[in-house]
Amino acid sequence: MWIRQIHRWLSIAFTVTVVANFIAMGLGEPSPWVVYSPLPPLFLLMFTGLYMFVLPYAAKWRSG
């Protein structure tokens, strides 16, 4: 399913941005765009994760 693939790639992007954030903090005071860069993938991960969580319940509800 395409939503699972998107979720997997978003998790990779989120992990990379968090690692980059820690590296930047180790080098000194990072700029705000580095600090807030993990947030967009995190929000998208939340929406795709909630969709995949609700999907089995919606299928039960539709089947009756």
Give an overview in words.
With 64 residues, this protein is mainly alpha-helical. It has one domain. The protein is 86% helix and 0% strand. It is built from three helices and no strands. It has helices at residues 2-27, 32-35, 39-63. Helix 1 runs antiparallel to helix 3. The chain is elongated, with a radius of gyration of 16 Å. The two termini are 23 Å apart.
Overall number of strands:
0
- Shape type: elongated
Strand content: under 5%
Number of domains: 1
**Measured distance between first and last alpha carbons:** 23 Å
Poorly predicted runs:
none
Structural class category? mainly alpha
| Largest sheet, strands/sense/barrel | none
Mean pLDDT equals 93
H/E series, N to C? HHH
Q: Give the C-alpha Rg.
A: 16 Å
- How much helix, percentage-wise, in residues? over 70%
Count of alpha/pi helices: 3
Short recap of the structure:
By secondary structure, this protein is mainly alpha-helical. The protein has helices at 2-27, 32-35, 39-63.
Topology:
Blueprint: H1 2-27, H2 32-35, H3 39-63
Helix pairs in contact: 1-3
Protein name: Transmembrane protein
Transmembrane segments: 9-27, 39-59
Keywords: Membrane, Transmembrane, Transmembrane helix
Question: Any key phrases for this structure?
Answer:
elongated, mainly alpha, 64 residues, 3 helices, single chain
